[in-house]
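Design request, tokens follow.
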């Protein structure tokens, strides 16, 4: 359905709504946990689309009702396997406990402050948490009794039970310890950051405050040293795990191609024992290990090698109830799929994430089209079944027993369904055989075995005042997935300047069949007189490994070529696009691409707003940057080719550099170095520093002011009159 055109008031008020709603994320139910019997679903949600304070909610499948368990102010929660015992984290690191079957507010745990990463054992016998780098446990019920310290850090740069910054932000491993199923022991990561380089991040707007010290391993420098330890929950014993190739741990800067498995990519403890997945520094080899809880020895279960890099798939590896190991695998046609013994998911079904296993059934997020991500169930030896139904969108899921939660963002907004009973199992199953995308759920007979019982959870997100009106296109010889957004008032024959608004970097696609915040922002820009084009080029997910490998060794050439090709092809489809007036705006990698566009191809791109642009790739972190460019000491040419600093003398188009001065991810040094190079070359440009802002400018008045400034600046650069802004 085409939305009604926005009014002038809608256009005026949209930036404040965008800021207050934190990109339309507040009020959304998220962080779902389903009990292992499927009876209880817990989740976090604020009470409105502008309220930032989270509450913990409970939905019970038998009662078909949802009710709050806490007042506002929860930052995280943890439950046992039955979702009866709950511990909640409060601001300041305080902890409180409750029982979902007993009415009443949470009961604070006395004397605990600064607690991080609380986690209940599966049976609910004990609660563990990290404080001052030490791992503690306290017995249940209610967390009463003495707090026992299991592991104490040996120095100020050592922590037990927490991931280091690379593991958390780039590898995606948020956990630092894992309970045994019977609650008697834990597998614990120890991180030593003493060799990691320090950075000092100050606030120039408040010079009276001391700078913060950050541990940041830039490309080619030392990482944190991570080891694994097995510890009894009663404190009776600890044993270090013998990880492969770790004899050089006393030398944290080992050669980049050394055989040492430097990264602990994932770990866990299931019914078959503890396990870990480790990765070499060059990221070309990943090994999955079974760990012996008796002596700490490691046995190889599987090994994956790739001449470019082994992609780390969220949720993988895992073992089914019977012990079948499920790992990520690049299939024969380049599809990123799964392997379980001799079985694989079909070619053409691109797997994005593994959600878990129910018996021998593996739940996953995947798609045959990069613009959609659905939830599927796959039992090795059978064809995958799509659980998220026929509606387009981007879906996430959580399951327990016969209950499935499907959180779907589609073209009309968000719908969160809880399906229990047999309906929580597969609802559509493709025909066996063929191995192609068509056999992965696009056809075949229905697999419904009983009438599902479905309920909706309320999503309280704000509806954007400006609703996107996307036109989905596949452009050029490479069939580039793109979205074109025109003003609602546009009539054929009216020429429009073009505004490219890409991310176009590894790991994130913006062209999806869903009502995303970035599509709403793009429509807001379009209503001011631009034709906005969003394109996912080579390197973005959902089109297989070879598509991603195109950026190996060079972060810019393929990405810029795809943006230019999409622009020309879009103009062929829509003759009203004025190729003499083309701007680019982006953030993070998108900001890097925007700056590169006007620096390297001023004949095509005529103005750019570059937000939080990582202009000097050697300043970015080890795991992310070395994946594409290698060790800068060994392969400096890739870093030089991907840096914007040497391009500074080529600037002859308007360029606005925007950067948060409290950005811990992409240091403000990137912006300062590029600006200095431009100044030294005598190239005029503009710089907009954002005091106090981090890598994401969201949830603050700055977000609204920045949108208004961008549209005025781009209007002036491209000859668009922006009325009332």
């Amino acid at each position: 359905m085409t939305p009604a055109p926005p009014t002038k008031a809608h256009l005026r008020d949209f930036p404040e709504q965008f800021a207050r709603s934190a990109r339309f994320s507040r009020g959304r139910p998220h962080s779902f946990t389903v009990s292992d019997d499927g009876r209880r679903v817990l989740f976090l949600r604020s009470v409105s689309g502008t309220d930032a304070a989270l509450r913990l909610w409970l939905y019970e499948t038998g009662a078909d009702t949802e009710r709050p368990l806490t007042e506002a102010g929860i930052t995280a929660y943890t439950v046992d396997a039955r979702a009866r015992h709950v511990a909640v984290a409060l601001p300041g690191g305080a902890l409180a406990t409750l029982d979902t079957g007993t009415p009443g507010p949470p009961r604070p745990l006395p004397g605990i402050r600064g607690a991080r990463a609380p986690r209940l054992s599966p049976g609910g016998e004990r609660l563990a948490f990290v404080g001052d780098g030490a791992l503690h446990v306290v017995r249940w019920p209610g967390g009463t009794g003495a707090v026992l310290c299991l592991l104490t850090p040996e120095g100020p740069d050592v922590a037990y039970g927490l991931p280091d910054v690379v593991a958390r932000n780039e590898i995606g491993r948020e956990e630092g310890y894992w309970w045994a199923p019977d609650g008697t022991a834990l597998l614990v990561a120890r991180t030593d950051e003493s060799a990691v380089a320090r950075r000092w991040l100050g606030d120039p707007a408040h010079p009276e405050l001391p700078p913060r010290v950050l541990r940041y391993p830039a490309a080619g420098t030392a990482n944190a040293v991570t080891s694994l330890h097995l510890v009894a929950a009663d404190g009776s014993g600890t044993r270090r795990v013998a990880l492969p190739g770790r004899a050089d741990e006393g030398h944290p800067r080992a050669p980049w191609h050394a055989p040492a498995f430097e990264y602990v990519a994932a770990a866990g403890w299931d019914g078959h024992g503890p396990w870990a997945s480790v990765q070499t520094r060059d990221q070309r080899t990943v090994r999955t290990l079974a760990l012996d809880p008796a002596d700490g020895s490691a046995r190889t279960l599987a090994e994956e090698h790739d001449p470019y890099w082994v992609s780390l798939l969220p949720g993988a590896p895992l073992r089914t109830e019977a012990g079948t190991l499920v790992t990520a695998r690049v299939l024969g046609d380049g599809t990123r799929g799964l392997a379980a013994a001799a079985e694989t998911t079909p070619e053409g079904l691109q797997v994005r994430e593994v959600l878990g296993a129910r018996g021998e059934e593996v739940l996953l997020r995947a798609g045959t089209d990069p613009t959609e991500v659905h939830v599927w169930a796959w039992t090795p030896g059978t064809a995958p079944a799509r659980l998220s139904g026929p509606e387009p969108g981007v879906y996430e899921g959580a399951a327990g027993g016969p209950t499935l939660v499907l959180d779907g963002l589609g073209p009309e907004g968000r719908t969160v369904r809880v399906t229990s009973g047999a309906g929580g199992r597969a609802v559509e199953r493709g025909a066996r055989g063929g191995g192609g995308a068509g056999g992965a759920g696009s056809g075949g007979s229905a697999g419904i075995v009983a009438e599902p019982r479905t309920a909706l959870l309320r999503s309280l997100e704000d509806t954007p005042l400006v609703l996107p009106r996307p036109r989905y296109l596949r452009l050029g010889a490479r069939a580039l997935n793109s979205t074109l957004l025109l003003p609602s008032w546009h009539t054929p024959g009216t020429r429009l300047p073009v505004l490219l608004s890409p991310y176009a970097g590894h790991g994130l696609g913006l062209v999806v069949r869903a009502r995303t915040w970035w599509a709403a922002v793009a429509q807001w820009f379009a209503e001011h007189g631009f034709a906005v084009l969003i394109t996912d080029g080579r390197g973005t997910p959902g089109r297989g490994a070879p598509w991603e490998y195109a950026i190996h060794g060079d972060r810019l050439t393929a990405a810029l070529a795809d943006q230019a090709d999409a622009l020309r092809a879009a103009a062929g489809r829509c003759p009203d696009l004025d190729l003499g007036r083309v701007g680019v705006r982006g953030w993070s990698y998108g900001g890097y691409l925007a700056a590169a566009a006007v620096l390297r191809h001023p004949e095509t791109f005529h103005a750019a707003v570059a937000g939080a642009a990582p202009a000097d790739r050697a300043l970015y972190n080890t795991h992310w940057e070395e994946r594409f460019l290698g060790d800068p000491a060994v392969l400096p040419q890739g870093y030089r080719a991907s840096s914007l600093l040497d391009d500074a003398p080529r600037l002859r188009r308007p360029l606005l550099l925007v950067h948060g001065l409290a950005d811990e991810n992409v240091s403000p040094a990137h912006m300062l170095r590029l600006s200095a190079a431009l100044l030294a070359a005598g190239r005029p440009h503009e710089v907009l520093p954002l005091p106090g802002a981090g890598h994401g400018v969201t949830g603050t008045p700055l977000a609204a002011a920045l949108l208004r400034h961008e549209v005025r600046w781009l209007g002036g650069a491209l000859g668009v009159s922006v009325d009332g802004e």
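Comment from the thread starter after seeing the answer: thanks! The chain is about 15% helix and 35% strand.
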